[in-house]
């Protein structure tokens, strides 16, 4: 039984919308290199719609696939619609993720929301927001095993 | 597509001779070795033969070899078995920072019961300084457990010198975890001077589900599995006869082939090491440059993450491992890389290769040819790499 679904593998191997948008209207960068995941999502906004979206991700297979999927889900959507997309919805669109990946690598929707927040902040003259560090997993391995 | 196994620390293919030796004990000679009647005769003979084969590999006596269920169990038996048996002498244990989890989590479990432990550091190559062991010893130290070679970075420790220091300066027992090294380097217990040693036959072409444990005559441990008199009362439970018979043959082969294995592996190891370091920027080797196992390499590839590297290599038929947080299942990057001073963010780019007898120089060449494209692809989508590139332009 493969660890990842076919859809995850497809998005990992053929990631959609990889890259950088020059002069993006909003950038959401989220993660922590110590945990192994950093997602950076760029959006171009026109008439309150996401006209273009691109991403760069440092991370595992799940991190890359969720980044790719979220860009596909929100391209052409209104900001309001995009704000409603959750990490869980992204995982579901990929036919699920292994349980251990649900929390660590499933941040793509959060990164997108941060990009929208950044877009709004810039419009109000309060941006850009910059990279937001997520907390490290600092539990002791031994304690984690006990909890499991 | 050809499958290249560069992850032999996870699994080695059992040798045909090993399987053949196991075969009779599944169905035709299914008896219990403890039976006095005839059904017990052949299985008892098999056990005795395997014990001798294992003893010869370790340069021990037959009655000093105990079969367990795994290398991890052997480590647990050494540590908890000693701790529980020697509470009259003390409650302190010394380990290194780069031990396997079956050692580290054993001492952590004991700590919850009131035992104490000290973790000695290692240098940037992963070597334990025997003087640090000497400094960590206390009057109440009952055990020192140091791995002969790390399962991640392959650095070989000077167990002989460490054993000498432990025995000269304390009443502690000396255990070495040879689960990674046994079968690929000398594990003569008399030469090493150890009181206990763990080994894992599935790492050297034997079956899974069986571990070796050397317990020097006169060393006191408390069994972890109480019950019958199997394994000299040190490990109760009906013996896994087929696996033990297979383990015996794996030991015999290891003794016979040790030199040939080394001379087969070293050129492949060198080809991969040189090829990777020459064909990629911002990649470096972890572990000792010379004092390391012939079948292990550990690299850090900067700005990308290990699991995605592993998955792309898998696509190309190459099976590797990584010490990154994402591959760890507990979301923590390697404690071994951290102990040798690799920054936690860089440890995410860990690439762990372990070689075996089925690997060839062609495999090494193919890997060295494929890796740069994988790294390039992942770096191109890495925001960390983007940052560095932009900073370099300025």
Describe the overall structure.
The complex is a heterodimer of chains A (148) and B (394). By secondary structure, chain A is α+β, with helices and mostly antiparallel strands. Chain A contains 7 helices and 4 strands; from the N terminus they run αβββαααααβα. Chain A has a single domain, classed as Sufe protein. Chain: A (Alpha-Beta Complex). A 4-stranded mixed beta sheet of chain A has the order 3-2-1-4. Chain A is globular and about 50 Å long. The model of chain A has no long low-confidence stretch (mean pLDDT 89). Chain B is an alpha/beta fold. Chain B has 2 domains: 142 residues, Aspartate Aminotransferase, domain 1 (Alpha-Beta Complex); 239 residues, 3-Layer(aba) Sandwich (Aspartate Aminotransferase, domain 2), CATH 3.40.640.10. Chain B has 13 helices and 12 strands. In chain B, α4 links the parallel β3 and β4. Chain B starts with a strand and ends with a helix. The model of chain B has no long low-confidence stretch (mean pLDDT 96). At the A-B interface, β2, β3, α2 and α7 of A face α4, α9 and α13 of B.
What's the helix and strand layout?
The complex is a heterodimer of chains A (148) and B (394).
Chain A: H1 6-13, E1 26-32, E2 37-46, E3 49-58, H2 61-74, H3 79-84, H4 87-93, H5 101-104, H6 108-123, E4 131-133, H7 141-147
Helix pairs in contact in A: 1-2, 2-4
Chain B: E1 4-5, H1 16-22, H2 41-58, E2 65-68, H3 71-85, E3 92-96, H4 101-111, E4 116-120, H5 130-136, E5 141-147, H6 159-169, E6 173-177, H7 189-192, E7 196-199, E8 211-215, H8 241-279, E9 283-286, E10 296-301, H9 306-315, E11 318-319, H10 335-339, H11 344-347, E12 350-354, H12 361-380, H13 383-393
Parallel strand pairs in B: 1-11, 3-4, 3-5, 5-6, 6-7
Antiparallel strand pairs in B: 2-8, 7-8, 9-10, 10-12
